[in-house]
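Cross-check.
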Amino acid sequence: MAQEQAQVLSAVPVVQARTLAQQVCRVEQEVAPQQNTGTGAFLGMAVGGVAANGVGSGEGRALATLFGAVLGALWGDRVEGRPVPQMQQVRHCTLQGVLQPQVVGYEVQYEYAGLQYSTRLPHDPGPTLAVQVTPAPLQGSDFTRAQKNPPRMGGGVFRED
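Predicted model, tokenized:
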């Protein structure tokens, strides 16, 4: 066996569309969640309960205290008021499949010893291609090119056109 160089005639990329995952994000304005602290209602309940406790006696005093506490809580909640809504930017991201062309190999046409061959390679071979040549005995005394198999390259798949 001998290693020789063949002349590359053409190397055409083989392209396939592949689906690749790509993160796609968008930014939106949203209302930030706000919570009432409850401080106004608590203070109103305490003040209302204490103020109403001075009214009446016995069972009437207990009912007045309870009623004063409830009204005080409602009044205190109103005084505190509702929080002012705040706007904030929120980023939402998702993964989406995107079709992108990808080179998966090269259809290579090459010439060696006056004959043309083709093969598919995983990379662009450049202007020349290393081929492995196996000598074969000549038939009779006549020098003929009865070559049935193309020269081989390490690891490649070859076919004769």
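Helices lie at 39-53, 59-80. The radius of gyration is 44 Å. Passed to J.P. for a second look.
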